[in-house]
Amino acid sequence: MIRVENVSFGYKNAKKQVLENLSFTVEEGEIVAIVGQNGSGKSTIGKLIAGILPLKHGSIQVDELELSKKKDAKSIFEKVGIVFQNPENQIIFNKIQEELAFSLKGISQEEMQTRIQQALKEVGMSGYEEAELYTLSLGQKQRIMLAEVLARKPKYILLDEPTTMIDSEGKEAIYEIVRNLKQKGYTILWITNLADEMLLADRVLILDQGKIACEIAKKDLEKSLPVLQKYQIKAPLLLHLLAQLREAGLPLAVEDFTVEEIVKAWKEKNK
To answer: Would you list the domain boundaries of the chain?
Structure first.
């Protein structure tokens, strides 16, 4: 479990704190989406949990570890992996093999190769070990960045708007990877501004003025459309579509969120 308690944070020379007494938890095995307006502090949360920004006020616990304790820092790094918005800002080496191997120091070559091959398989990039990153699309580069995290075998994955800069095909590839990771037991904190990505989460936390303003379970998203509107969060288009289809006599729930599932149910009804 990730437990965030009474965390406050402000950047140097800023007039106002970005986060103010922020508290929430992420249970093992679930996907939690954090949404909010630009500047609401979403990315700051991810960077604090990953140890990229210094925690000065409040408490962040990752399992039994406390982020504020220096002796726990290395163990937390091993448990938590983070993928940022722009993959090109994370790339260090040009060769994919070298890029993935960079964070795998201290293990045998045999174990390193096993992890690299498995991670590339998980993101649908098997056989790219010797490829050069500059030849890849932005979406493929982002999948390599995710593979680099997976090769470390973290328990928790933080996704900081990882699909914002990639095309629709690249987005769908990331979504499929995330679904598979959830089935394998990974715990994912997804920081996003994209409406449809809320439907991949078990819970949605709305961040407003540095605080969690509202928590919505996936099954309650449809009846929470007024809440999303209140905080200027764009509602997933599929929620509106589901409502229209139910009016037409098609019994669908929010859990049936993929286009494929909706089309399948529609065809069954109209046989």
So the answer is: 2-92+137-223, 236-271
DSSP H or E run through 52: none
Amino acid at 169: E
Query: For the segment 160-189, what is each residue's pLDDT rounded down to a tens digit?
Result: 999 999 999 999 999 999 999 999 999 999
* Residue 34 DSSP label: E
Over the stretch 63-80, which tens digit does the pLDDT of each residue have? 989 988 888 888 888 899
Tokens encoding 254? 């929010």
**114 and 101 Cβ atoms separated by less than 8 Å:** no
E strand segments, the chain: 2-9, 19-26, 31-36, 57-62, 65-66, 80-83, 156-160, 187-191, 203-208, 211-217
Strand order in the sheet with 203-208: 80-83, 156-160, 187-191, 31-36, 203-208, 211-217
CB 70 within 8 A of CB 51: no
Per residue in 193-204, pLDDT (tens digit) is 888 889 899 999
pTM: 0.88
Q: Rounded distance, CA 209 to CA 172, Å?
A: 31
Using CA atoms, how far apart are residues 68 and 210, in angstroms rounded to an integer? Answer: 20
What is the tens place of the pLDDT at every residue in 121-145?
999 999 999 999 999 999 999 999 9
Quote the crossing angle between the two packed helices 109-122 and 168-183, to the nearest 10°.
120
* Options 3.30.830.10, 3.40.50.300, 3.40.50.150, 3.40.50.40; CATH of 2-92+137-223: 3.40.50.300
Contacts of 109 (CB under 8 A, 6+ apart): none
Residue pair 66/72 in contact by the 8 Å Cβ criterion:
yes
